[in-house]
Amino acid sequence: MVGNASSGNHGSKDYGLLLYMRSELVQAHAQLMANRQLTRSNAGLLALTEGLHELGCLDKDAYEACKELYSHKMVFSLVAERHRPKTVDGVQEQTRLKKMEVDFSQVISQWSSMPTKARLFWGNKAKDFKDKVPNAAIVLELASTAGDAKQEVLAGGP
Predict the structure, then answer these.
(1) Given pLDDT bands bounded at 50, 70 and 90, which one contains residue 7?
(2) How many helices (H) and strands (E) does the chain have?
(3) Which 8-state DSSP code applies to residue 72?
(4) Distance CA 31, CA 131 (A)
(5) Contact by Cβ (8 Å): 66, 45
(6) Model confidence over 27-58: pLDDT tens digits?
(7) What gap in Å lies between CA 45 and CA 108, rounded to an integer?
(8) Which of 42, 95, 104, 125 has the fewest C-beta atoms under 10 angstroms from its C-beta?
(9) Domain boundaries in the chain?
(10) Three-state SS for 37?
(11) In this structure, are residues 146 and 38 in contact, taking their beta carbons and an 8 Å threshold?
(12) Could you give the angle at which helices 134-144 and 116-129 cross, rounded to 10 degrees?
């Protein structure tokens, strides 16, 4: 898949690489996205860049250029900083969303050790915040790769 107008990925299919990852790698990729506030594509490309450099397959100049290119934070974080709320309600909502961002970050880091019931809870909660909190979308993605949890989260679950 090359991408679409909103994905930012307009490259040729000749340079595309479809990867099927084990659940441990999906979780690590999601954690990299959350920790560094990277897009899905940039997180994958940064990890690939780091790995190829570590293996001695990418020289220092190319490594530094790629690392700089793929380390840029997602645009929404810059936009959110410019539009700080001016009302008490806006400040309270922003505080609530920041708390949820922290909660979802913790969920991502603890996902593999969470019981199924907790995964279902956070998967369902992530549906409510998917358009407001970036890490909620990552939790939803983790929930959708979790087998049983996928069906209940996507169906509306308990």
Answers:
(1) low
(2) 8, 0
(3) P
(4) 19
(5) yes
(6) 999 899 888 988 888 999 999 999 999 999 99
(7) 20
(8) 95
(9) 22-37+85-158
(10) coil
(11) no
(12) 140
C-alpha atoms less than 13 angstroms from C-alpha of 7 in its C-beta half-sphere: 10
C-alpha closest to that of 45 among 14, 13, 9: 9
Q: What is the CA radius of gyration of the chain?
A: 17
CA distance 86 to 76: 19
Q: How many CB atoms lie within 10 A of CB 42?
A: 22
Q: Model's pTM, two decimal places?
A: 0.48
Distance between CA 49 and CA 137 in Å, rounded?
24
User: How many CA atoms lie less than 13 Å away from 68 in the CB half-sphere?
Assistant: 6
Residues 115 and 7: beta-carbon distance below 8 Å: no
Question: Six-digit token pair at 138?
Answer: 């990552």
The neighbour count for residue 95, using CB atoms within 10 Å, is 11
Q: Which one-letter amino acid corresponds to residue 97? A: L
- Going by pLDDT thresholds of 50, 70 and 90, the confidence category of residue 77 is very low
